[in-house]
Structures are given as structure tokens and as C-alpha cells.
Amino acid sequence: MTHLQLKTNLLNQPLTLPNGVVIPNRLAKAATSETLATYSNNPTDKHVRLYQRWAASGIGMIITGNIMIDRRALGEPGNVVIEDERDFAILQKWAKTVTQQGSQLWAQLNHPGKQSPKGLNVRNISASAVPFGVEMQSLFTTPDEAIHAEIIEIIQRFGRSALICKKAGFSGIEIHAAHGYLINQFLSPLHNLRTDEWGGTPEKRRKFLMDVYAEIRKQVGTDFPIAIKLNSADFQKGGFTEEDSLEVIKALAAAGIDLIEISGGTYESGVAKAPQKSSTIAREAFFIDFAEKVRAQVKIPLMVTGGFRSVDGMNQALESNAFDIVGIARLMAIDPDAPKYLLAGTNSKQTVQPIKTGIKKIDHLGIMEVLWYTQQLNRIAQGKTPKPKESGLWAFIKSVVRSGWGTYATQRTRIKS
């Protein structure tokens, strides 16, 4: 752990959002999927323990991982679902354990669309009935094209879930529109082949997202902050491009979005892995070049997640004024105390390393590292310490077994209910 001589540690500066909400510092825990819920998709005390641990680090805001809005549409076994108030008491406890320590807890709301393991859901829908690439077809089925009534219902569900989160004491909402999930599927010309009001042109492809945002805003009001996680690009031929993303961002800014988190990639191309030039590697932040393009177009606060390795790199990035909040995710899965060190001007004791199984076909899948880090979150939630040196192959095997059992258990739970 090296102490860095900083004139001013910019990470400690508060940030005021356009609606007046103040985030206490410039560090945010970006969303990572925890899969800690019951197989009937209820949040548990494991969530409370995990987030209590993170909030104790002094981080300014924490974004939950993958809260789904429909029990019929899960991304993984163990996803939390908020579609009514049946879990209101534990949701309040979850929010309070973070906010009473001075941090903010934002709920990331999501719908997986077709990005759901085979057998988990009775039926998967997407913008169009487009299958995954050959390498992923063994894991995911070809979806049905969503009909108009289903799209409208999903939009309403986003709004309902957001309102419940607000009532339970969460600090804000983040719409997940990145990483290949349903909203990203609608945005992408590779996955959205529709020719009706929901596709055919960039404006129509983003209508679903804009309607989701409008419904959430209608439900939570203007004083409650709403963020979006958006890909700078999908890094897939024929997919969502930087030019597409810039147009979406301008539309969201005009509509009153409070914060934009920039990420990139999908489970097929690799999540939060931008093609890196040597200059990007030196600057640490994967998406800082795109953030600079966004900053030239809009003045909405920006959060960049991916690639940060040091407190010095984070400060240099913030000093450039290209963005406002540093998002860290994987680092906090192996060092939940990392923000304490970073805010004090020193580096974490741990560094994020590539996770490999040694099997090329597995290592090439963007989902591989997600599974490894999910294992570490599970350890923290159980009161254990992470295992930064855990075998990638062993973690993959455990994840496959756990996912298989989780799919079976979820199916059995549905039958009983």
C-alpha cells in the first residue's frame, strides 16, 4: 500500500446533483450482481450484512445489483424482485443500514429480456426474436418478440418498483440500460429488428427507455434522483454505437435525468471492457475518452466505472473534469474497505486481476468474471473475508452447480406457489 502525496484528494469532495441532492463524496460502489435473495426472490439479511460492510467504508453512494421488476423475468437465480410491498420491512432495513452510516443507497432496476439462463423463466421476451451468438446459445434460449401490451406492462412495472424503493428509504434509482439486458436489447439495431413504434430508427429504438424513464419520474417526482447505466457502445458489429449512445444521452438530459453512469459491453462481448488504447490504459478509466465526448454535449453529472487502479489515477481523471464520480465494483468484492484507503489518499491493499480458468472457451465468455466476483460477494455477506486468489476454474464450477440448483429450486418454488 503506497501513500500518495496529493495536494487535494478530489475523491473527498461532495457532488450536488441538478435536483439539489448532495452525494457526500466522489466514490460510488457500482452495481454488481449478488444473487443473495431466496429462490422466491426475497431480499434477506445477507443483503443487509453485505451493504452494511460496504457503507462502513465511507463510500459516498452504493448502487444495488440487478433488482428485477417481475418474478417471471429473472436474470439469475437469487435475484431480488420488487413488484409489490411484500418485502417492505427488509427493504427498509436494507436502506437504513446504508443511509444511517452517511452513504446513499440507490436501487438499480432491471429486466433481463432474453439474457436469462435456459430453464430459469417459463418464457423469455426481447425486442425481437434474435438468438445469442453461437458461443452463448448453449446457455440462453431464443426469446419471443414482446408484444405491445407486454412492453406497456414492463414500463409500468419499472415505475411501480421505483415508487416502492422510494417509500422504503432508498436514496435514488438507477435504470439498467447496459450490458445486454432488455433496455439495451431495445436500443441495439443488432437485437431490435422491429419496424413498429418500438424500432426501425434510433428514435424509435430508444422510445422504450424514454418511456421507462418518464414512468419512473411520474411515480417518484422531480426531487427524487434517477440515474441511468448506459453503454458507451456494445462492441458488437452492427450493435449499439458511440454515436447512438450520445443521441440517447442528449435525449435523457433534455428529459431531466440526474446522473449518467457510463459503461460498455455485454455478456457476449465482455462487460465493462472497452477496447483499450495505450493512452486509455495510462489514464486508467476505460471510458474516459467517451466521457469527454459526452461532457462536450451535456452538463449532466457523469459517473465512469471500469479500469481504475489507483487513487492517483482517480484524482487525475477527476481533475480532467471529464466526469464527476468514480465507480468501483470489482475492487470492493475483494476489498470491501477499499474506499477507506482511497479517501485517505492511499491505495487499496488489493488489485483487480484478470480471472481465468485456463479453458479458452470459458475465458472468452464475458460472463466468466461476473461469476467469480459474485462468489466473493457471497463470502462477505456470510461474514467471511473475500478470497482474492481463489481459482477461476473452481469458482466457475461452483457457479455452474449453484446456478443449476438455483434454477431447479426457483422452478419448484413457482410450482408450489
TrEMBL record:
**Species name:** Acinetobacter bohemicus ANC 3994
Q: Domain named NADH:flavin oxidoreductase/NADH oxidase N-terminal: which ranges? A: 13-340
Tell me the domain of life: Bacteria
Q: Which UniProt keywords apply?
A: Flavoprotein, Oxidoreductase
Q: What is this protein called?
A: NADH:flavin oxidoreductase/NADH oxidase N-terminal domain-containing protein
Q: Which GO terms describe its molecular function?
A: FMN binding; oxidoreductase activity
Q: Which SUPFAM superfamilies match?
A: FMN-linked oxidoreductases
Q: InterPro entries given for it?
A: Aldolase_TIM, NADH_flavin_oxidoreductase, OxRdtase_FMN_N
